[in-house]
Fold each of these.
Amino acid sequence: MTAPLAEQGTLSKERLRLWLRMLRVTRQVEAALREKLRVEFDFTLPRFDVMAALYRDCDGLKMNELSKRLRVSNGNVTGIVDRLADDGLVERIAIEGDRRATLVRLTPDGRDAFTTMAVAHERWVDALLDGVSPEDAHHIGELLHRLPADTGVQRS
Amino acid sequence: MTAPLAEQGTLSKERLRLWLRMLRVTRQVEAALREKLRVEFDFTLPRFDVMAALYRDCDGLKMNELSKRLRVSNGNVTGIVDRLADDGLVERIAIEGDRRATLVRLTPDGRDAFTTMAVAHERWVDALLDGVSPEDAHHIGELLHRLPADTGVQRS
């Protein structure tokens, strides 16, 4: 059903306002988390994101898989993985039969360190979203699950 | 009222899931808008953001005000403003009695260009958030307006 033109204008304005607020809140929460990680663990958000991705795959990930999952360039991920490896938090494993590719995975120390930070991270997020009731969290979560509607990328 | 411990755990997990979805959706929508701006106007998102901030203040903004409003470093803003000035979209105006500071404001061409892009931008956002009903947009907008609850920055 198509809404009358006047209503469509109001709706698109309402969605624009929603988007600008989402952007503002996301940036503020992200900045707060970045600061907490720095102060409490002397850690950066990109390093935390890389470790979170690796934590989910115990067998490790290829660099290009890791890069795709994080939506950042291969070059950026390589630099972060290098520094995590220097700190003994991740390790590179050769893949048999594929000399050009290596797997990256968390070391036992890396898994311990990530678990500690993840518990704190969940607590920080809980405090930052304190105004969100269980019902709202569930309702908005469901809604966001269906977004974005159309990123211009063809779906098969 | 404090919830029992088990419920608190569930609630913080629900808020964490909500946060991760917000982050994912925000990044996807932002990436889609970035791509649209590039393809349709050969323009970048940081340039668009700077012009949006200047559009609201017809009298112009000082560089440090602009930088604070956009939450990016002075150095980054300077580079973007330089390129916008080269393209005739913004102009720098000397402030009487303050030799070190200049105002930046949109030129008439800049206001025209921004208006055209802003109309398209609103249309893109409308399409990207197509799954959001007017009621949801309003409800979530109100909720986000009160977030984040606590960024660790002291409030006066």
Amino acid sequence: MTQDVRTITRETTASTIARVFAEDDIGSVVVTSPEMKGVLGIVTKSDIMHQVAVDADISSISVGTFMSTPVVTITGDKSIREAATLMREHSIQHLPVVDDDELVGILTTTNLAHYLPRLRRNILRSRDELSDQ
Amino acid sequence: MTQDVRTITRETTASTIARVFAEDDIGSVVVTSPEMKGVLGIVTKSDIMHQVAVDADISSISVGTFMSTPVVTITGDKSIREAATLMREHSIQHLPVVDDDELVGILTTTNLAHYLPRLRRNILRSRDELSDQ
């Protein structure tokens, strides 16, 4: 997972987020609040694309009006397979990792895809170790 | 992979593509030409995001000016692992599948992530079959 998660507040404008996405080469930002623990919402490139598509004034519209909420999250103790299944079931590409109301990272379909060649080696290795016993 | 790939020409405007992305819930379109075989370029949500971020006039700018070209592609006979490795090496999330200059599909990091739980089962199954022999 990516541990350095970019967070914003619900007042942030769509055009500011478009610049964050373009400059940082990331696909989502998590909406948090200084007053509340936990995750309020999530905004992805698809959400910004939708605002562009409907001709919204992206320099003034704030993410509080179009963020996805509530957010599907996972705890850090879950397996990669559980995360992949959860993302498929909910048709999402970004899954915040939250432990005790604390955002600790984000897992993306790109993270999972990059892990895929390693997964094959790990499964075969753990299988070999088992059969050695 | 996704077989129904959305293609556009290089004259298509950025705002038209933003609408296609929003309406069809896809993350990339492949640029082709009626006059030429093969794939001319690819445009992703990140590319549109970049145009929005630099305040381009997205209702008039055509994709020929900002599409990614040449395009990294793969042939249909390659393994999922090879595709995942290629995508990681090139930092891309969309990989057109091209056989004999013919676009036959597109593979995304989301496709790979969705395949991940199945991969684990398949590897273990093929391993079990081998050990049965």
